[in-house]
Write the structure tokens for this entry.
Amino acid sequence: MGRILEISHEGRLMSRIVMGGWRHDLHPLLPWGHRVIVITDKTIARRYRRLINQYEHIVIGTGEKIKTLQTIEEIHRELIARGADRQTFLLGIGGGIVTDITGFVASTFMRGVRFGFVSTTLLGQVDASVGGKNGVNLDGYKNMIGCFNQPEFVLCDIEMLHSLSDRQFRAGLAELIKTGLLGNRVLFEMVEAMSFEELRRDPLLMADLILMAVKIKAGIVERDERESGERRKLNLGHTVAHAIEKSSRKMLHGEAVAVGCVVMARLSVNMGLMPEREAARIEAVFARLGFTLTSPAPIEKMIVALRKDKKAAADQIRIVLPVAIGRCEVRSVAFDWLEERLREVMK
Ligand SMILES: NC(=O)c1ccc[n+]([C@@H]2O[C@H](COP(=O)([O-])OP(=O)(O)OC[C@H]3O[C@@H](n4cnc5c(N)ncnc54)[C@H](O)[C@@H]3O)[C@@H](O)[C@H]2O)c1
Ligand SMILES: [Zn+2]
């Protein structure tokens, strides 16, 4: 078995994160004697036939557009048609879309069945599959319907990252850098010292970096599972990222998070919270790894989207500001004030 990290809450084991490979590590994680049904997407089903065909499986489409209640309902119907019951174990194999959907299906089917994940994207491994948030989008609002519920295990399969496109890999790197930026200077500096090619080619190094990111996220989740305080830090760069994603289809989520992190760093400098040279380092690491650091959407369109953001309560909005590399603060600010500052720093 690969390296394991346990997530507990108030002394109770909630989830195990395993860094490993499906060939050796999946079977021992599955509950003995239970029926297992896999939920995966069509890309994984095609590329990893040998893995998927070992289990009964339900295959869904790809892309954010299928992350809907309709897909949840279709999977529920399929489970009923196949005679799944409360003893059935659901195994999500895929990226963040598959794991968000599987977690929600498992939490609601017959009031909840046991479930686990094989996480197959870098973004999924450092972020989406860890932490117990499950859910789908509604009317274009991301993750509007969902629940908190921890998978029994998350197997982060490092080898499967090989078949990811460079673009998807880079999108995952954005969340990795974000995690270093908000909570661990060493993680940030390790990524800072590497080129894109070195990161792509070195699975052992990646396993170390992923585990560091997972530890930071898991620590925060242990202290604040329901996002009433510290967990909000994980949204660093996401207010701007969601506004970009809602106003343009040109960027992947991680690509938009990179822009969001850089904008927040500039805002921190503008507010006198962080020295200019730290912001310059943040910008440089993203630029060197090949990220585009300007929003593809005009600022006016982004502001309209921001106002609709679900995190905007009344005329206040919560933002996460890096105050140093490895440390950030959550602040509630007036919307009008933020709008004005964004116009300045995104010029
Ligand atoms: N629950 C959370 O806490 C949380 C956190 C962050 C993001 N998310 C969600 O995660 C989703 C994004 O996740 P994602 O970036 O993993 O996207 P994704 O699940 O859409 O995967 C990206 C693409 O890569 C393909 N793919 C997956 N693994 C592959 C592999 N090993 N080789 C080749 N292709 C592969 C998929 O089929 C898909 O087309 C969003 O919906 C986002 O809201 C959730
Ligand atoms: Zn994210």
Remarks:
- The mean pLDDT is 93.
